[in-house]
Amino acid sequence: MRPLRIGLTGSIGMGKTTTAAMFAEAGLPVWDADAAVHRLYAPGGAAVPEIAALRPGAVGPDGVSREALKRWIAADPRALTRIEAVVHPLVAADRASFLDAADAPAVVFDIPLLFETGGDSDMDLTVVASTDAETQKARVMARPGMTEAQFAAILAKQMPDVEKRARADMVIRTDTLDTARAGVKDVMRRIEGGMDA
User: Where are the domains of the chain?
Assistant: First the structure.
């Protein structure tokens, strides 16, 4: 029987990564979209020869250079579309392989842009990690090297939290570790109850 697919998302600083770790602790396999891209970009990764064919200067001994891709995207308005045409199918294949290999009643797909990319249509249940804007900003600004301008630019690319919460099947409040754990338990109960709750 195919595992239930749980799509976990949340804007920057909302506690999504911590929440994903709690699902893993609860025994659910977790697939991380960002980690998948890192694997694809690493030396020997499936994206390396394809990116090299598009932009030879973006690939070196350490695999694909994200900094080189950023410079290319900044200089060429068509670059992002071309990169995504290579990377998105590879990420989808990685996700499908993970699902095929999973031996659990449910799996969690940790996808930052779940709603923005339409990935929610592939999920049985969507879950959003969320907290208030002040907590979110404090968390993000505490990251090394983060600036107000960078934070604003990242937020501009993400669907507003209020919209994500409205679209999600369930919301996990991450104001504290305890509220996040309670939210994870609620989701686990819903899975164990056959999704009827």
Answer: 1-29+107-197, 32-101
Q: What one-character DSSP code corresponds to residue 3? A: P
| Predicted confidence (pLDDT) per residue in 95-153, tens digit | 999 999 988 889 999 999 899 889 999 999 999 999 999 999 999 999 999 999 999 98
143's tokens? 């990251």
User: How buried is 43 (Cβ within 10 angstroms: 0-12 exposed, 13-18 middle, 19+ buried)?
Assistant: exposed
Helix (H, G, I), strand (E, B) or coil at 53: helix
Please give the Cα distance from 54 to 69 (Å, whole number): 11
Cα–Cα distance between 119 and 184 in angstroms, integer?
21
Query: What CATH number labels 1-29+107-197?
Result: 3.40.50.300
**What CA–CA distances, in Å, run from 135 to 80, 131, 182?**
31, 7, 18
64 forms beta bridges with 59
Contact 108, 151 (CB under 8 A): no
For the four alpha carbons of 1, 111, 166 and 133, in that order, the dihedral sign comes to positive
Cβ-in-10-Å burial (0-12, 13-18, 19+) of 157 comes to exposed
Q: How far is 24 from 69, CA to CA, in rounded Å?
A: 32
Q: Are 110 and 15 in contact (CB under 8 A)?
A: no
Q: CA 44 to CA 64: how far, in whole Å?
A: 10
Residue 124 CB-density burial (10 A; 0-12 exposed, 13-18 middle, 19+ buried): middle
Tokens 């068509």: give the residue. Answer: 78
